[in-house]
Write a structure and sequence with these properties.
The protein is of the alpha/beta class. Helices cover 46% and strands 16% of the residues. The protein has a 5-stranded parallel β-sheet with strand order 2-1-3-5-4, with helices on both faces. α4 links the parallel β4 and β5. The chain binds D-ribose (RB5).
C-alpha cells in the first residue's frame, strides 16, 4: 500500500525512522509528512497534511504517531471524509479497518513501545474492511454532512 506517515516530536528521530523502515520492509511505499526536527512540533500540522493526502488519493491510508495518538486523531477527524482511529493495540487496529473502514490510524509512542507500534501498524494494514458495515459508515458521513 501507499501510506502517508505523520509524526510530531513524541515520535521523532530513531522511532519515526524505524517505523517507516518497518513499513518499507513489509513492501509498502511510504510518503513522509512527519516532523524531522529537534524541538517541539504541533501535531495538528502533521495530522492535517496526512489527512489531505488521504483525501486527495495521493496515499491510500495514513498512519499518525504522536504521544498518545489522541491529539492527532482529533485533528485528522476534523477533515471531512477522514475516519481516524486511535489504536493502542493490535485488536483495535484490526477492527478499525474491518468495522470502521478507518482510512487513518493514530498511535501513541508514549503509550506503546516501538515493537508494539509495528505490530499495531501491521494489524491495521493486514485487515480488510467488511462491507456489511456500510450502513454505519454512511451514518457517520451523514453526521459529518449535517455539521452537528
Ligand atoms: C506532545 O507533548 C503531545 O501532546 C502530543 O504528542 C500528543 O500526544 C497529543 O495528543
Amino acid at each position: 500500500m501507499k501510506i502517508g506517515f505523520g509524526n510530531d516530536h513524541a515520535a521523532r528521530g530513531e522511532i519515526r525512522a524505524e517505523l517507516m523502515e518497518h513499513l518499507k520492509s513489509r513492501g509498502h511505499e511510504v510518503v513522509d509528512f512527519g516532523y524531522a526536527g529537534e524541538g517541539a512540533a504541533d501535531y495538528p500540522v502533521y495530522a492535517r497534511k496526512v489527512a489531505h493526502a488521504v483525501l486527495s488519493g495521493e496515499v491510500e491510508c495514513g498512519i499518525l504517531v504522536c504521544g498518545t495518538g489522541i491529539g492527532m486523531s482529533i485533528a485528522a477527524n476534523k477533515v471531512h471524509g477522514i475516519r481516524c482511529a486511535v489504536c493502542p493495540d493490535a485488536y483495535s487496529a484490526e477492527k478499525a479497518r474491518e468495522h470502521n473502514n478507518a482510512n487513518m490510524i493514530a498511535i501513541g509512542a508514549r503509550v506503546v513501545g516501538p515493537e508494539s507500534l509495528k505490530v499495531i501498524m501491521d494489524s491495521y494494514l493486514g485487515a480488510t474492511y467488511n462491507p456489511k458495515y456500510d450502513h454505519r459508515i454512511a451514518q457517520i458521513a451523514e453526521i459529518e454532512q449535517a455539521g452537528e
